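Quick start: read one record
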Amino acid sequence: MSDAANMSTVRNRPAAFGAGAGIGILGGLIGLGGAEFRLPLLIGVFNFAALEAVILNKAMSLVVVATALPFRAGTISFGMIADNWPIVINLLAGSLLGAWLGAGWALRLKSETLYKVIAGMLVAIAVVLVLGHDATAGHAVLTGWAQMAAGVLAGFIIGIVAALLGVAGGELLIPTLVLLFGADIKLAGSLSLAVSLPTMLVGFMRYSRDQSFSVLGRNKAFLLVMAAGSIVGTFVGGLLLGLVPNGVLLPALATILLISAVKVWRHP
């Protein structure tokens, strides 16, 4: 069988939709877009090169983030988000620059190095997912100028991570919003989306200057089908929210990320 035939089999549309839906359900259950779980599949199962996988992942993550905001509007209105605009601006001050720089670094890294960077960040996200996602809202740990400086720094780091992995960064933004700003967990989820969308757009613009960006045009059908599956899955995951206890779900998801990190690290 030719390489082209193999790629056709590996990247068939039902598999793309199924993967997108499954990852979307996981993301919906824990309030994330699921990009952290999609990226290892794009590399290990659908056989995309590291940078191409990051660009595809970012494109699909953009779709999920853009649709998640209105999906959540019934619980967290746009007015509530607008009332907290200083927090969004504070984090964006760092995340936009981080996203631009992170995307530039990804373009310059050799594929082998990028695989290693991705694997390391998947491990870090697994740790944050377990330790930070169950944080409860309360008083902000910092106030005034110290809080503002910490917000810019946190946004900068999150922007770099989001650009390098093609993710929305919610698994890092939500704990930051809860712990640093004392936000309610549900409000933090919507605020994180408001920060993620422009941050991802900046990284996406930076990637558009590289020839690897053409992967979107070459795989348009795959992209649309997997994005559709992700949206459906996120919607279903939201409906299932509360049925699966976090005490069981989060360690299981962290384990999946760790296994994925090992596979990405060893990717030829």
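DSSP finds 13 helices and no strands in the chain.
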